[in-house]
């Protein structure tokens, strides 16, 4: 009976050690899970910030493109007006030259 009791005590101690080992492993795995959860949260926050920055940059690009188009349009209108004014001036000078040539006068 003493031998049986000794065997049972050894078995109990082995089971207790196995249980403690399993608890330690579970504790370590829980710590790893908590760490990974924190990392995932940080990554999600970083992705959110990146998405927000991307949206802001896309809006800035759109606004700048509109400003470039407006500037180009304004420049084209201004150039046309200048060309028209120069054309009018050339015609006026040609008329003056014609008049002067017909009258025998030269400038």
Largest sheet: none
Name the helix and strand elements from N-terminus to C-terminus, one letter apiece: H
Radius of gyration equals 45 Å
Sheet-strand content, in percent, reads: under 5%
Q: Mean pLDDT score, rounded? A: 92
Q: Could you name the ranges where pLDDT drops below 50 across 5 or more consecutive residues?
A: none
Q: In DSSP terms, counting alpha (H) and pi (I) runs of 4 or more, how many helices?
A: 1
- Give the distance, in angstroms, between the N- and C-terminal Cα atoms: 143 Å
Shape: rod-shaped
Structural class computed from helices and strand pairing:
mainly alpha
Number-wise, the strands total 0
Helical proportion?
Answer: over 70%
Protein described:
- The protein has 107 residues and is mainly α.
- Helices cover 95% and strands 0% of the residues.
- The longest helix is centred in the middle third of the chain and has 102 residues.
- The N and C termini lie far apart (143 Å).
- The mean pLDDT is 92.
